[in-house]
TrEMBL record:
One of its GO terms (biological process) is killing of cells of another organism. It is found in: Secreted. This is Defensin-like protein. Transmembrane segments: none annotated. Belongs to the DEFL family. GO terms for cellular component: extracellular region. Residues 1-27 form the signal peptide. InterPro entries: LCR. Keywords: Antimicrobial, Disulfide bond, Fungicide, Plant defense, Secreted, Signal. The keyword Secreted applies. The keyword Magnesium does not apply. It comes from the Eukaryota.
Length: 124
């Protein structure tokens, strides 16, 4: 019976981690009109970095620069897990593990089915 509980606990942890990875934020792109096409690529890369992409658009020859930009959506909170909480790894240890494993991660010990799990919250 104990082996079944541990297996279910392991599967639950994997499910939590999988769900948090699926919800990761995707990169967003922005476009800026840089007016004339003269030196379009050079101006685009100088303004928005080497990964930006430029193109001359339309009959009037306007330079459009596409670049990676930040999303203004509020940060989403995701949940993950690290390991079991023990006497050697109490809540403070769990919190440290979450901070190492996840960006802006914070953690605490939660009792679940007779086990103390280290559960993390982080922005994703």
């Amino acid at each position: 019976m104990e082996r079944t509980s541990i297996s279910l606990l392991f599967l639950l942890s994997l499910l939590i981690i999988f769900a948090s990875v699926v919800n990761q934020i995707r990169a967003q792109t922005c476009d800026e009109n840089l007016s004339s096409c003269e030196n379009c690529d050079q101006r685009c890369k100088a303004k928005h970095g080497p990964s930006s992409v430029s193109k001359c658009n339309g009959p009037d020859g306007t330079c459009i620069c596409t670049y990676g930009c930040a999303s203004f959506k509020p940060a989403k909170l995701c949940i993950g897990a690290t390991d079991m909480c023990t006497d050697k790894c109490p809540t403070s240890c769990c919190d440290r593990q979450c901070a190492i494993k996840y960006k802006n991660g914070k953690g605490g010990c939660v009792d679940y089915a007779g086990y103390r799990m280290c559960i993390c919250e982080y922005t994703c």
